[in-house]
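Researcher: Quick test of sequence recovery. Tokens follow.
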């Protein structure tokens, strides 16, 4: 599966790396990060992945916090126009947890910022201010976790 994706798209980026959290801890940290968000110097990278299983309403939830420990993927900002990256959950055979991988969704210019969409602003319409440059809705998508 991964090989097919690699062949079909111009570049493959990398999977995001961070602390894997239990949901209770993720919720505690999200509250702390929300409180700190008014400080311009602070930026958090808590990513919540929800995977709906084909069997019914069950949802697998993975909390990755790259705020303190992470790789370069933690620096990818949001863009309201969807940006130039798309995300895919990729499972390596034998791995229990999928990896969230970033793929180029179109050709990019040298020095162009890589961005993707953090989600749907309707889920939490009073989010942080968004400062993306194109077709901006003014709110950074986030969810009540
Ligand atoms: C995954 S980090 C991205 C890297 C971050 N900008 C940094 O310098 O460490 C996510 C955080 O970046 C900021 N951010 C990302 N995209 C943004 C945007 N379009 N407008 C405003 N802030 C944004 C928010 O503080 C968000 O919580």
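Model:
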């Amino acid at each position: 599966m991964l090989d097919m994706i690699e062949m079909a798209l111009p570049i493959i980026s990398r999977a995001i790396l961070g602390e894997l959290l239990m949901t209770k801890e993720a919720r505690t940290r999200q509250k702390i990060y929300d409180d700190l968000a008014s400080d311009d110097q602070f930026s958090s990278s808590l990513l919540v992945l929800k995977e709906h299983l084909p069997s019914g309403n069950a949802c697998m939830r993975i909390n990755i916090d790259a705020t303190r420990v992470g790789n370069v993927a933690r620096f990818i900002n949001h863009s309201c126009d969807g940006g130039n990256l798309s995300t895919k959950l990729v499972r390596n055979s034998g791995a229990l947890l999928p990896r969230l991988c970033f793929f180029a969704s179109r050709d990019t210019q040298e020095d162009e910022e890589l961005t993707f969409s953090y989600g749907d602003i309707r889920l939490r319409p009073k989010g942080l201010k968004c400062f993306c440059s194109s077709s901006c809705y003014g709110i950074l998508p986030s969810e009540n976790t």
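The chain has one domain: 2-119.
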